[in-house]
Amino acid sequence: MNKKKIVLASTLAVLLAPSVLNNLPANHTVQAANTQLIGTVRRGGAATVDANGNYVRGGYLGNFTSWRLDQRITIGGNPYYEVATNQYVDATAMNISNGNQVLNPVQKEVSYVNAVKTITGSNAVVVNDNGYSLGVTLPNGTSWRVDQYKVINGYPYYRVATNEWVKALNFTSDYNGTNNTTTNTNTNVLKTITLRTNSVIYNGQGQNTGKTLPSNSSWKVSQEKNINGHQYYQVATNEWILATEDKNTSVFSNGATTGTLAKNIQLYNTASNSMTRSLSANTSWKISNVVENSAGYYFAQVSNNEWIPLGGSVFSDGLLQQELANSATYEPSFAISLFK
């Protein structure tokens, strides 16, 4: 593998031969090479694929490693950057920087939704794409169709019109004829938990408040409840965290869980120690175990010998992917030959 891992004070010049461009599939969008961009792999690692979207043997990038990015292409409608000759990484698996600032921070990524939400409590201030007030408010009690969700300046927002956003905390639960946010009755628990990582705080409806609690900090828990299929612990009034953020809580506490794929995924097979068949996007699979290897890469087990690599946005439910990573067992040598 022609790795281009970043070394301080190093420079790299890339000349892209026309013949290389001519060999790319015709339906792939290509942007010119840009050696000014650096990609830092997010938690979970990242797998590389060739220009046809097939996994490359040995093409795994570890957590938080940085790579010089060359040409950008589109595979299956998603942007990928080249990190080595004919080896590409999903843009969503990296923080992409121009050397001065991150160009695709997680908090600016947009999720697409289709729901109706109702303003509650007081009139809601409307801001533009950059979080600046437009001098407009939406009346308390009015309902609005929202189509996008993102975090602006640390707070989650929903889009109500082009370049018009309202803070998520101004809304009640969304619905499409029925209420989409399902919660069960709070269950009293009395215990102290210790956090694995910096943990996002959610409100009682499961909405991100834009605040976090520090890793390795300990908190007394008084209640737990289920919101949209995810378990949460209450750490303060109307402040909840995912239960799996606790070092002693696993998503598998009550058995296997189920995940729906956001894209086609090629499986790793322990019997052959290779990448084998692929699973299709929008299909659902029971997951019974997750492991993390010494390269910082995660794999989720879907059959006796078959595992899903968890780099990038694999599941349509982003919280599930976080819960799986939180619940991983450390097996340093698992699939490690793929990284050599």
Automatic annotation (TrEMBL):
The S-layer protein C-terminal domain sits at: 113-168, 185-243
Give the protein name, as stated in the record.
SLAP domain-containing protein
Keyword Nucleotide-binding in annotation: no
**Top-rank taxon:** Bacteria
Q: Which UniProt keywords apply?
A: Signal
User: Could you confirm whether the keyword Signal appears in this record?
Assistant: yes
Transmembrane parts of this sequence: none
Q: Name one Pfam family in it.
A: SlpA
The stretch of residues making up the signal peptide is: 1-22
Q: Which InterPro entries match?
A: SlpA_C_lactobacillus
